[in-house]
Design goal:
Elements lengths: L1 H41 L7 H8 L7 H34 L6 H4 L1 H14 L6 H22 L6 H24 L3 H12 L10 H17 L1 H7 L3 H6 L4 H23 L5 H13 L6 H22 L6 H23 L4
């Protein structure tokens, strides 16, 4: 009896420790995110005292600060956070569902679907603003459906879906290159800015649709957090635990693709944020519950901090997609080399 009580106490203590670590990590991520958000509003090419920033946010007109904070810095920071949350949440959902770190929208072609549609809309159809966004979102969902159908054979295997996605990505990249090679100069610059992934020229009126998509589709993803954790154990085990595997996959795919497509339509395909957020979150919290919320916060930090670094901490100004791409590419190579040396399968 004493041994049983001791074992039970040990298990309960271990669970409490894991829960405590998870809460601490989430709290630290929130504090860092708030700190970077405040930094981007106060410090740029010029310094705006925090008191003036607060007055502007409360609706006061502060000479010299209102334009800088309200028109330039605030939209950029808000869209960076919303896009980062979307990329991090959607990317982690894919990686968990397919049990593969390469199963992120950056790798399997979903971002390229939205990008191809946006470039076609800008260069060929001469569209701008909401029309480009709507076409990009629709195309991202369509490409995701195509990849799912092509990779479906008695279910969807993660490796098969990734390989099909890489093939579709190559086709879409070729299509984009063809469109750009025939683009007039006045459309080429806009298309390239969109393709790079950037929050340059951000406007606050772009935030509400993305916020709504994040609230609805992100909420659906979070509602499937427990089912996703069960899918980590394999489809058969998840089904034995009472999880509707097919239903969960459909909900997760539609929700993750949707939230990523909305973010891509606003900022362009910010490279490797969806790919990096899940692994970074996993290293910080360990095996302590769902990765969805920590990955979303990591994604927001990556975009917000990456944009700030690209604007103010380097000799030249770079879009945030260049900074995150520089971080993500070495990690992708490391991941492939490690798996190759260990003989493991990606």
């Amino acid at each position: 009896m004493t041994t049983l009580s001791s074992t039970t106490g040990s298990i309960v203590g271990s669970r409490r420790h894991r829960a405590r670590r998870r809460h601490v990590v989430i709290a630290v991520l929130l504090i860092l995110l708030a700190a970077f958000f405040a930094l981007t509003l106060s410090l740029g090419q010029s310094f705006t005292p925090p008191g003036e920033v607060i007055r502007v946010l409360l609706g006061e007109q502060v000479p010299g600060a209102s334009f800088t904070v309200e028109q330039l810095r605030l939209p950029r920071a808000v869209l960076s956070v919303l896009a980062g949350l979307s990329f991090g949440l959607g990317g982690a959902a894919f990686q968990i569902m397919l049990r593969n770190p390469l199963a992120s929208p950056d790798i399997i072609g979903i971002n390229w679907g939205a990008s191809a549609a946006a470039v076609f809309a800008i260069v060929v159809l001469s569209l701008k603003g909401p029309a480009v966004s709507i076409l990009a979102v629709t195309s991202g969902l369509g490409v995701a459906l195509l990849i799912y159908v092509l990779s479906f054979r008695n279910g969807v295997a993660g490796t098969r879906l990734i390989l099909v996605g890489i093939g579709v990505s190559a086709m879409l990249e070729s299509f984009i290159a063809y469109i750009l090679s025939n683009a007039p100069a006045w459309n080429l610059q806009e298309a390239m800015r969109w393709l790079t992934g950037s929050v340059n020229g951000a406007q606050l009126d772009q935030a509400p649709p993305l916020l709504l998509a994040l609230a609805v589709l992100g909420g659906l993803l979070l509602s499937q957090a427990r089912n996703l954790e069960a899918l980590r154990l394999g489809d058969d085990t998840a089904a034995a635990l009472g999880v509707g595997v097919a239903r969960t996959r459909i909900i997760v795919i539609v929700s993750a693709v949707g939230v990523i497509a909305f973010a891509t339509a606003v900022t362009g395909p910010i490279a490797f944020v969806a790919f990096l957020s899940g692994p970074i979150a996993a290293r910080t919290i360990g095996n302590n519950g769902s990765l969805l919320i920590p990955a979303a916060l990591v994604g927001a930090l990556l975009v917000l901090a990456g944009d700030y670094c690209g604007q103010f901490l380097l000799p030249s100004r770079y879009p945030v997609g260049v900074i995150t791409g520089a971080l993500g590419a070495p990690y992708l190579i490391f991941l492939i080399v490690r798996a190759n040396r260990s003989g493991a399968s990606l």
